[in-house]
């Protein structure tokens, strides 16, 4: 099938590349010419495992192209995926100006039937506004459908998630739109994936409700982790114990410094606002946000309790991205941690395998903030190592080498990536594991 994708960020690029990889013909529209040449050579400007490989293959096969000519992109196909940003506005609401902008551009170039698909995360009933906008700005009375097909991929596993969805949700208002989606996702349903066809409003709401639920699950386990610290129980014993309950599940029950990224913080906030606009006080989600913000403060308190004074101490930070597998630093816990530690006069030595470039745009290198391209180099003469992102390479470190390089063997782990029993010789602190214990699990 021929598919147009508008927006070449984390979602747009993965969507475009993966649809092409399935054998479709894809034209992906960018707003500007920045990185256009690179993309047309198959070089991704964002880091997402596996993305560069499928981009290259499909460029070579002539199945995907990138353009900044929006008219050409709209003319190209009858299926248009809107994958632009919906960031948080000052009020906490989702800022839908990029979606409105695209809706107007589609209207101005509409001359035959189009299925317009909201893939961006938008508040419930946004499709009504998209429809109204297209009707207002289009010259002729041309048939079109506006549908919702929210994206559930996770950065860091975006390509895998696209190809292995737990479910595909589409919200449609016509039989025609439904038929197009069934055809588009046929290879998935044939493999056994669930395609849930619902109304556009329900599809929009499903996305916010899902993300908020997952954020809530993280805050819930983090609150239990706090309690575990107070009563001297290892949080992992609790997470395992409740996670084996199939109604709950073990995913998203890893305690740590809290969630960040471009989705959970803004989507939870937007969902609270959506409820508020309908006269509801979503206290449950407000508490979710509060617990998440508190995790960062408590982590800073933990550092102070261990180091006492930070001034002139060398503190190494491993992990700047908001999670492993991405170069995205939007709402990353590392931003707050670096900002606050920087105020205390510590010498910060930062390392991340992918996010350094993005982080350097926020915090320039200076006498107190140094960047390293080698994680061991960053540890030299360090008084403490902080783990902020759960990158796999941090889990496989040579602990003897680490100890040999540091001035003091202190590790404060915000992601609980190490097994406490192998940390002999270190002062090792983590989240919800003041007392380290393990349950015996027999199957
Ligand atoms: N990042 C994720 O993990 C994820 C997962 C699921 C859903 N989402 C949702 O998907 C949407 C996109 O997220 P993202 O992370 O890809 O954002 P992003 O900021 O990485 O990308 C959005 C892109 O859209 C482009 N854009 C804006 N207006 C445009 C226009 N008129 N024409 C062409 N391009 C235009 C921007 O330049 C930007 O590159 C958001 O609504 C987000 O909430 C994100």
CATH superfamily of the largest domain: NAD(P)-binding Rossmann-like Domain
Q: Could you tell me the mean pLDDT?
A: 97
Helix content bin: 40-55%
Low-confidence stretches are none
Q: Could you describe the largest sheet, including whether it forms a barrel?
A: 6 strands, parallel
Identify the strand order in the major beta sheet: 3-2-1-4-5-6
Describe this protein's structure.
By secondary structure, this protein is of the alpha/beta class. The chain folds into two domains: 197 residues, Rossmann fold (3-Layer(aba) Sandwich), CATH 3.40.50; 218 residues, Rossmann fold (3-Layer(aba) Sandwich). 42% of the residues lie in helices and 14% in strands. The strands form three sheets. Strands 3-2-1-4-5-6 form a six-stranded parallel beta sheet, sandwiched between helices. A six-stranded parallel beta sheet has the order 11-10-9-12-13-14, with helices on one face. Strands 7-8 form a two-stranded parallel sheet. The chain is globular and about 70 Å long. The model has no long low-confidence stretch (mean pLDDT 97). The site of nicotinamide-adenine-dinucleotide (NAD) has 25 residues, from helix 1 and helix 5.
Describe the protein's topology:
Layout: E1 2-6, H1 10-21, E2 25-29, H2 36-40, H3 51-60, E3 64-67, H4 70-76, E4 79-82, H5 97-108, E5 114-118, H6 126-137, E6 144-148, H7 158-163, E7 167-171, H8 175-184, H9 186-190, E8 194-198, H10 200-231, H11 235-243, H12 264-277, H13 283-307, E9 314-318, H14 333-343, E10 347-351, H15 356-362, E11 369-371, E12 384-387, H16 392-395, H17 399-405, E13 410-413, E14 427-429
The chain binds nicotinamide-adenine-dinucleotide.
The site of nicotinamide-adenine-dinucleotide has 25 residues, from helix 1 and helix 5.
């Amino acid at each position: 099938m021929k598919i147009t994708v508008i927006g070449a960020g984390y979602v747009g690029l993965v969507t475009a590349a993966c649809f092409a990889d399935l054998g479709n013909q894809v034209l992906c529209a960018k707003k500007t010419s920045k990185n256009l040449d690179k993309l047309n050579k198959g070089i991704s400007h964002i880091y997402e495992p596996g993305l560069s490989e499928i981009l290259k293959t499909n460029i070579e096969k002539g199945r995907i192209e990138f353009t900044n000519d929006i008219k050409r992109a709209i003319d190209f196909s009858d299926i248009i995926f809107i994958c632009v940003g919906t960031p948080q506005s000052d009020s906490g609401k989702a800022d839908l100006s990029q979606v409105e902008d695209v809706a107007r551009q589609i209207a101005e170039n509409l001359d035959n039937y189009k299925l317009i698909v909201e893939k961006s995360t938008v508040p419930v009933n946004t499709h009504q506004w998209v429809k109204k906008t297209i009707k207002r700005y289009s010259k002729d009375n041309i048939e079109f459908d506006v549908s919702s097909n929210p994206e559930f991929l996770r950065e860091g596993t975006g390509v895998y998630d696209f190809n292995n969805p737990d479910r595909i949700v589409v919200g449609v208002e016509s039989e025609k739109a439904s038929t197009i989606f069934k055809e588009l996702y046929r290879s998935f349903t044939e493999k056994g994936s669930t395609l849930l066809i619902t109304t556009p409003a329900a599809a929009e709401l499903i996305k916010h409700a899902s993300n908020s639920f997952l954020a809530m699950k993280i805050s819930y386990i983090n609150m239990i982790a706090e309690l575990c610290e107070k009563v001297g129980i290892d949080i992992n014993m609790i997470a395992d114990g409740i996670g084996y309950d199939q109604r709950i599940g073990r995913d998203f029950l890893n305690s740590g410094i809290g969630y960040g990224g471009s989705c959970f913080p803004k989507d939870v906030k937007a969902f609270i606002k959506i409820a508020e606009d309908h006269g509801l006080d979503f206290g449950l989600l407000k508490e979710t946000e509060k617990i998440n913000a508190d995790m960062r403060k408590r982590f800073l308190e933990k550092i102070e309790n261990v180091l006492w004074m930070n001034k002139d101490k060398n503190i190494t930070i491993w992990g700047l991205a908001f999670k492993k597998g991405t170069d995205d630093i939007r709402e990353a816990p590392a931003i707050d941690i670096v900002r606050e530690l920087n105020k205390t006069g510590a010498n910060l030595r930062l390392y991340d395998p992918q996010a350094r470039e993005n982080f350097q745009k926020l915090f320039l290198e200076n006498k107190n903030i140094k960047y390293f391209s080698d994680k061991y180099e960053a540890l030299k003469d360090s008084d403490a190592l902080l783990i902020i992102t759960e990158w796999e390479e941090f889990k496989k470190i040579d602990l003897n080498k680490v100890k040999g390089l540091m001035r003091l063997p202190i590790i404060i782990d915000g992601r609980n990536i190490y097994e406490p029993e192998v940390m002999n010789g270190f002062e090792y602190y983590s989240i919800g594991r003041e007392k380290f214990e393990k349950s015996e699990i027999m199957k």
